[in-house]
């Protein structure tokens, strides 16, 4: 048996904590023998949840954390003041190298800030981007960066391209991932100042397969595996993806319920439709890694299911086994 | 009878020129008595199209333009070199005040460049934004700016907010339009440098109803009437709207055809579904005005139908009747 991969799960984070994160962790332990879980949270609450399940007790440990950071709290202040929160306690285990990864459905802002100030960046990494997978017609693409640090410099975007490429190759199993930069036209001379400066730098990178610009219109088709952009634009893309999808689906449902004929039809198409909509649901595509840190931090959706949290744990295991951190270190030459 | 509104229609622009623009113009003339049309294009081709229809001959004039600017041509060079193109000839009529408005389904880049250098901006207007209507659950919102000039300054965004507000009030009939700025969070302290600088300026504007930040996720719900952003972000929003919609719809159609049961259901829901998808089609929401110019320039989609071009002509008529240019001038204090 190879070495255990140690994952801290934020038992207090997310809309359905502690039930859902605890169940996700237990399910992961029962399915994979090489995962060890630290559950960070209020001991009493966590124990009550754990009492519901059978699981390998030698591979789970509760780490007491008496405070909870709420979603609405200003992240920097929360990380500073709530030293005994599940996020701070959990990420501190990463910093001390007692654990390999941290998974949380809690406050995105606090998880990001904590990642930077508690876990810390790999030497040479200028910024740690948040990189969710977004659904496309061909599967999923990595959208990098959707984090909280906006107004990036060209050197940041170049690092995002390299880190994203390493991630997609090692975690999603994509050979020589196609990397594109978000732009407002396909031609090299198009773009804002940031894109124009970054474009030639990406062309020079020998360790990535740069395919040029991608217009937002073409993102859902899935022609690029790694989609590089500055965090403000990344946030707009990620959230509009959710928004257009949700509104369109609700309008379609409404139209199907508009008369008897349609209602009958809706009942017939429902099973097939449901399957399709599921593949186009952003939250279904696992957790978003915060790349370039000394340990892996994964942010799962606030409403993530136990299955999604379980999958995030598997993602952490693979991240460790493939030594993604080591590979990122190799590509980021200081 | 009040004064005629004179609209130049680019007879050579778009995927189906000259058939479609000519038909759109003729239909507009037959429906409204107070429109006069100049058809700019190759006389022989335009005459051949016109021969198919009945229309009031005293309200239509062909303006010879021997050249055509293709979509792929670099816009600045094309506007400079093709002096006898339908776009240059048509926009020159605006500059000379021989016409009130110009409608084209041709090269977006060339229409935008021509608007700036040929038609010219209203005194005090720093930038002329392209402002398409995008479909929402409540109807449509104006997305301003989606043009070609990126890296805007805060003063530009403030002018966009004012011009967009005047447009929605006078053309879409929205009383006190709600204006929001695209941001990555709802709180005032969030955003990139541009948004942070612009936010307090918008709050100070007494002539608009500023409601604060809007996250991309909430745009499709239709809570803001005027959505202000810098052109790079506007382009991403506009094109992702199209892209996500198109991909999702094609996946839904595919899923409905996946088995016999679904196929039967699909036949039943089709009419209602078609209606819904139509309201969510960006190209169905008329032409996008280029605001802040001395005359109105409207860019219709390259694949615009005759009906859409007809509607763009009606839009021009209302723009003139409501004296939108005069109202913009009042709000942009130099």
Give a summary of the structure in a few sentences:
Two copies of one chain form a homodimer. With 334 residues, chain A is an alpha/beta fold.
Please give a structural write-up:
Two copies of one chain form a homodimer. With 334 residues, chain A is of the alpha/beta class. Chain A has eleven helices and eleven strands. In chain A, the strands form two sheets. A six-stranded mixed beta sheet of chain A has the order 3-2-1-4-11-10, sandwiched between helices. In chain A, helix 2 links the parallel strand 2 and strand 3 (60-64). In chain A, helix 6 (154-170) crosses helix 7 (193-204). The longest helix of chain A is centred in the last third of the chain and has 26 residues, at 231-256. The first copy, chain A, starts with a strand and ends with a helix. Chains A and B meet through helix 8 and helix 9 of A and helix 8 and helix 9 of B.
Q: What class do helices, strands and sheet pairing of chain A give?
A: alpha/beta
Distance between the termini of chain A: 35 Å
Q: Mean pLDDT across all residues of chain A, rounded? A: 93
The number of E-state strands of chain A comes to 11
Largest sheet entry of chain A: 6 strands, mixed
Roughly what fraction of the amino acids of chain A lie in strands?
Answer: 15-25%
Q: Unreliable segments of chain A (pLDDT under 50, ≥5 consecutive)? A: none
Instruction: Work out the radius of gyration of chain A.
Output: 20 Å
Which percent range fits the helix content of chain A? 40-55%
Largest interface: A-B, 61 and 61 residues
Q: Name the shape of chain A in a single word.
A: globular
Order of the strands making up the biggest sheet of chain A: 3-2-1-4-11-10
Order of SSEs of chain A: EHEHEHHEHEEHEHEEHHEEHH
Specify the oligomeric state: homodimer
Q: What is the number of helices of chain A?
A: 11
